[in-house]
Amino acid sequence: MQMKYVQTTCPYCGTGCSFNLVVENNRVTGIAPYQRTPVNQGKLCPKGIYAHEFVNHPDRLKSPLIKKNGKFVEASWDEAYDLITKKFKQYKPDECACLSSARCSNEENYAMMKFARGVLKTRHVDHCARLCHASTVAGLASTFGSGAMTNSIGDISQSKCCFIIGSNTFEQHPLIGRQLVLAKKNGAKIIYADPRLTPTGKQADLYLQFRSGSDVAIFNGLMQEILKNGWEDKEFIKNRTKDFDKLKEEVMKPEYSLDNVSKISGIPAAKLRTAAEWIGKAESACILYSMGITQHTTGVDNVRSVANIQMLTGNLGRPGTGVNALRGQNNVQGACDMGALPVVFTGYQKVIDEAAYKKFADAWGFPDGISAPQNGYEVTVMMDVLADKPGELKCMYIMGENPMLSDPDLHHVEKALKNLGFLIVQDIFMTETAEFADVVLPACCYAEKDGTQTSTERRVQMWRKAQEPPGNSKLDWVIIKEIASRMGYAKQFPWNSAEDIFTEIAKVTPSYAGMNYTRLNRPEALHWPCPAPDHAGTPILHKEKFAHPDGLGQFFGVPYKPPAEVPDTEYPFVLTTGRCLWQWHTGTMTRRSENLEEEEPTGWIEINPEDAKALGIKDKEKILAVTRRGKVEVPARVTPDIMKGVMFMPFHYKECAANTLTNNALDPIAKIPEFKACAVKVQKIAEAK
Ligand code: SF4
């Protein structure tokens, strides 16, 4: 038997742990630790430990499929490409839209972005960052000039006060959770704010249980208390920031007194006071947040509030400080960096910026030009346009995304997808979205490809090919290149390897300019920005100045606004959604992983015991959860860990899909939906019938 270890990077969360794929007789059969990486030092969470299990699952797509008379039939690549190119040529540029993928590599996201803008010439390209951290990208770009996690993962253990809000770090980014344990061992105080007392909260020194959607009020209250006590960092405010007066004017309003914030949020005023004191007086304080902050109609406001408190207390640009936005999927940071967004090219170079536009048009050399220098539609807006303005968008090319389970208000998404004239889905398994496709293209998974992905801490790390792909499946970038060639653009897609694509990325992307595969091919890899071949990378951002042209951090006065839909007599509870330790997003990979699926094989709704008693609902009883958008049957999980008046559902499960219920009201800037708060009622099934 031939056996080898191939070191690669985890395909699940944005932490970016490394491990070895165990390969026996050219087939991936297991995972073994890889100790040399500074990210996880050989340790893994359950998803990482079992990340080999889906790779050779019998459900893998092995051949292109074309829908004929409502049924998929296997087709050759030539047949699939002929149909696709014929269809693409029928549509005008802005009748087409592309969805790129946070699961795919940087190289593949770059290829898709270039294909959308250069081949289809459409402005409408986006990906699922819209659903998780679009608020971070927009919020931090406006405050700091750069929309990414400011510090590095290892740095968290050096903090003296860690404030975690809207992130169940121990379950969703377990190897970042490890840094919190180390920080606590080093004497840090841990503050945890969330409507659910999660395993992360159980390790905290101070737990703030709050009503989902009251984040801005909480931050304003904390900042008022810090200012009243003189705990702000006056030097930092004076030298490094602007518009402090605007912040002060807002947060000093009487409505943000701790007593009033307590009424809005449900957190006792004494606990808020303690939190303000710990943050205000700490030698170094960091904030960790995730989708609990971003997935709101006030997502950008929430992120600006996080930035405000860190600038107010001078907790930026030093070890143990920072705004640590924990990105969800393995390469959601990279997909954003690669410009798989409707407003930017790579490295956040704006499409509407004349110089940036010219730079890309010239560098790519499409003889008939590229998409117009205007912003395109976000994925959430694409769905609205498809559902409500039939005929405006007609054709969609989706790579590695599953909006039929991941997007809010699934009936709305279904209506949108049914209004498409032509849909291509490229994935490794048949997904809920692929069922709606006209053509399904079989792609390769992480274990079958070389490439890079950029973790939440901006660390660009490598995937390494460990086995051949199954059947006739192909690499995502090869599929894109082959379609582009058939559309007459072979010259613009000259690549023969992922490395060739990365070389092109580095040429057009200042923050990646100093990187190449030789430099990345080492355990510590490189953090962007890395602007030159002799630059060591940047683990901590904003050390001396912020990324705005004047170098100053921008304060915003942020008024508190409630969620778009609040409880009323008909729908008296708040529904919030999220993930669990054992499953991942729409379950495409984890539900085909025996050991993970066994742990949490179906969904549930968490209900506080007092609410359950009042409703006559027992633990494990199947009940009906109903919102203005739909209803699902789901088992109840009665637990004191959820706040009274609030309910929680994981969104992984198609048989009780939480997103049938969620609200697609959007943040006005980031266009991110409000997954984290809508009004819900629950009924006993017998009574509902
Ligand atoms: Fe993979 Fe994230 Fe777990 Fe690390 S913490 S093993 S990156 S899922």
Structural class: alpha/beta
Overall geometric form = globular
Number of helices: 26
- Bound small molecules, deduplicated: iron/sulfur cluster
User: Low-confidence parts lasting 5 or more residues at pLDDT below 50?
Assistant: none
Tally of domains: 4
CATH class of the largest domain: Alpha Beta
Physical arrangement of strands within the biggest beta sheet: 5-4-16-15-14-6-7
Distance between the termini: 60 Å
- Proportion in helices: 25-40%
The biggest beta sheet is recorded as:
7 strands, mixed
Q: What share of the residues does DSSP label as strand, in percent?
A: 15-25%
| Number of E strands | 28
Calculate the mean pLDDT score and round it. 95
The CATH architecture of the largest domain is 3-Layer(aba) Sandwich
Rounded to an integer in angstroms, the radius of gyration calculated over CA atoms is: 24 Å
Q: Predict the CATH topology of the largest domain.
A: Rossmann fold
